[in-house]
Every structure is written in C-alpha cells, then in structure tokens.
Amino acid sequence: MNDPARPNAISPIPGWTMRPHTFTVPLDHDRSGGPTIEVFAREVVDTRRDGDRLPWLIFFQGGPGFGGPRPLERSGWLKRLTGEFRVLLLDARGTGRSTPIGVHTLECLPSPPEQFAYLRHFRQDAIVRDAECIRRRLLGDEPWYAYGQSFGGWCITTYLSQAPEGLAGALLTGGLPPVHRTAEELYAHTYRIVETKNDRFYTMFPQQEENVRRIADHLAAHDVRLPQGDRLTVRRFQQVGLNFYRSTGYAFLNYLLEGAWVDGPDGPQLSYAFLREIERQFPYESNPIFAVLHEPIYSNGPATRWAAHRVRARYPQFDAEAPGRVLLTGEMIYPWMFEEYRMLRPFAGVAEQIAAHDGWPPLYNPGALAQNRAPVAAAVYYDDMCVVRRFSEETARTIGNCRVWITNEYEHDGSGVDGERIIGRLLDLMRGHAAHAFA
Q1: Is the model's pTM score more than 0.85?
Q2: Domain residue ranges in the chain
Q3: Does residue 241 have a pLDDT over 60?
Q4: CATH class name, domain 16-179+364-430
C-alpha cells in the first residue's frame, strides 16, 4: 500500500481516529483538462490499530444526493467495520463537502441547458470514477473493499460493471438495483408495495384512516400554508408515506397525525407543530439531487420522462379526491414538486431537461457482472418499500460470486437499526463462512 502524506488526525469519538481527505477530480472524467471539482471523504480507523496495515473499505451512502455519515458515537455498522478495516466515508460528488449542489450552483449556470450539462455528471457512473481516482491515490494498484447502503449499492453494482479490478469484495444492504428493468417497471411494482404499507398502517392504527381523510379534505378546501410559506396541498401531504421505509415509520406517522388538530377561532385547524414537522420531513430542498437526479439513477440509456408520475395514473386508488381511504405515497418524485417546493423551483427547467434526456451512458454491464470474481454479499429486505425484492433477486443472479441474505426482519433502514449484526452476517457471507439464503 502507498503511504501518501497523512492529513492531520483527530479523535473526537473515543476509540476512533479520523482524518479528512480532499481530492481534486475532473467534472467530466472523459474530458482531460476540463473543469474540476473537489471530493471530500473522512477516514475512520480504530485508534489502537491506526499504525497497522489494514485493508481499506469505502462506504457509499444512500440517496442519491446525501453526504457520507457524520458519526457521533462508536456504534453500529461502522463500529463493526472499523474492527478490521480502515473505512473511508465518502461524500459523493455534489453532496456534503464535495462541491455540493444547491441553488447557488444554478446562479453560476443561468440557463437550463448549462445546468443540464453540469448536473448530468452527478450519477453513480461519475461517483465510481471518483472512487477509482481516490483509490489509486491512496492505495496505488491495490484493490479495496466497498460497502453500499441503498443507492450506495447502485454505485457498487456500477463499480463491478465498469472497474471491477478496483474491488476486493463488496457488501450491500437494501442496494441491489434493478439492472434489467426500466424506471417505469420499477414504479409499477413500487406502487403496489406502498399500497400494502398503507394497509399495514391502517390495520395498526385504524383511527387514522378517518383522520387522514379529514386532513386531506381540509387541505383541498383551504389554503393551508407551511411555516416557510409553501402551500400544503393534498398530494404533498400524501408524501408523508415516505416514512414507511423505516422500521419506526408507522409509529412516527401515528404520533404525527395524533397531533394534527387544534382548536382555532373558526373551528379546528391544523396545528403549527404538525405543519412544521411536515415541512421538516422531506429532504428535497436541502438535498436537491435526491429530487433532480432521482429517476436517472434507474436509466441505462432511455429517458425516464417522469416515470413515477406517469405510472401513478394506473393506480387510481392513490387519487385522494376519490371518496374513501386516502393512500399515502412513497419514494417517488413528481414534476409538480418543482412548483410546490419553494427551494426546488429554481431547478424546474433543468429537471424537465433531465426527465426528457435520452441517451444516458450505460450504468451496468451484465457481461462484466456475470464474470465478477470479487466476493459480494447482499442483504435483501423482503418487504422493502424502496427496492423491489424480485428485481434484486434478478440482479443477484446476474452477478457472479454473489451471495444473498433475504430477510423480513428489517425495513429499508435495517443497517441503521441493527447495523453491527447485519454487517457481521454479510462479512461471514462474503468470506464463505455461512450458508447463504439464496440460490
């Protein structure tokens, strides 16, 4: 392993030593001499083993559009991994401290075509090429390990497709992408899964069925404003169903809805606490990549053309204007969000260009995946709302040397709930020390 100049180390959490790393990489890896951006990553290592020659492992965060973890305590999957790896927590380009994307970005790129020319370089293919630049600077020709949660698994699957020589092994949690499926096919299945999540919620908390209907009717009849000024429409309210991806999401929504109403001068009205929490729930404004580039992460070429929005028309049960039960929605991005979310409005023009773009570079190479030799271990959550299990199983069959643990013990956030156990199980699978649950 190379021994590059080591940044200053700090130990803010007992037992861990951390080092910040900043790398300059091309905006467009196919354009030498073009513009560059900075990519930040945080090295975390067990203080007692900082002087040892440990294997490196890079962590790819879920998303898209979220920076790497900012650990506050020595626990969970990171504690397990630092027991034997030097872990690099990556802020993927456009997130965290890696030349972040925000409204300020658009101020330097005044037209939607210019904005598109810039933002098209922030999918997982570019993230993987950043990782390869970083690996070569830190390790030279030596491969490293990778762990990806959710979208992080998308990045690893692209890595195995495009630069497999860089990986010695990989772990994925809720992160086997639908390699053989379009965004439209994905959402056709996802809406059905979200409907079952609604069924479960209303079975657990039957009193909320009438309450959600009442809130929807109130929003349809009144101009209700969120604390920052946006109107809370019915369809925006329905997006609280995103919480169903979490193991605690059902209980959280029940508590949220319990406090929805207060007595006002003209009768019952929605409480400030309820409205403030609704506004706080969604990451779209502070993490615009999650909205702007969400559907392109599913494209191996063709335009997505607002797939989630188009597919929703096939499921009239999600129409809150119809009588009866109101269904909440999940992890879907809609064109109307770029009107109703104040901080997304500047992205409306470029979002339309991105949705219409045909000819995205391929993300996955099934032939290369089939020939993979690096050991891969993946946790697939049986009832995952965000990742269709059936499609994950298809992808697992595509990747050579891939072992899968299918479990209904967790929702999509399993690694955050019981990460130490899950990662321990996957390390055993990767090393062939345990029977796997998928053939």
Answers
A1: yes
A2: 16-179+364-430, 183-356
A3: yes
A4: alpha beta
